[in-house]
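Hello forum,

I keep getting stuck at the same step: I have a sequence, I want structure tokens, and every attempt I make locally crashes halfway through. Rather than fight my setup again tonight, could one of you with a working pipeline run this one for me? It's a single chain of 152 residues.
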Amino acid sequence: MAFGVSQAQIRTIVQQVTDDIKNQTDKLAGEKPGESSVGPVNWQSGTGTSGEPGQDLVSIGVAGNLKKLHSLIVNIGALTATASITIKLFALVNASWTKLYNESFVVGTDPSGVWAVNGTLEISGVLRVECQSNNAGDNGGFISYKYDLEDM
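Reply #2:
Ran it on my machine without issues. Output:
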């Protein structure tokens, strides 16, 4: 015994510290990217969960969990040329769904892949993404997305 601590106690402490370090460094790898395509849906004439025109694209995260969202790319390239596509992000703020982001992009003028999130964003719970087109030709169309998450 050195300083009143047995070798077994030292081994236990070292193992706990090692496990804690491993747990934290394992988070650095991030999760498998989320990616998919949504459609055919009515991007112009539909209604999203928010009640606004458009449709839900994806919900990212889980209620009660903290995550780091590093990027969200929305691919609008399969929609009608010259259509204006609005990307909206919603999150719960004090138990009320709140619009955090609302920006429009023009198909064929702006890049097909839009960085809706480009940098680290803390998600406390769920981040809902909705999209809306101003062109009826996009009803029945597809929008794809990709996002990268990391545990906090």
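The chain has a mean pLDDT of 90. If your local run keeps crashing, start a new thread with the error log.
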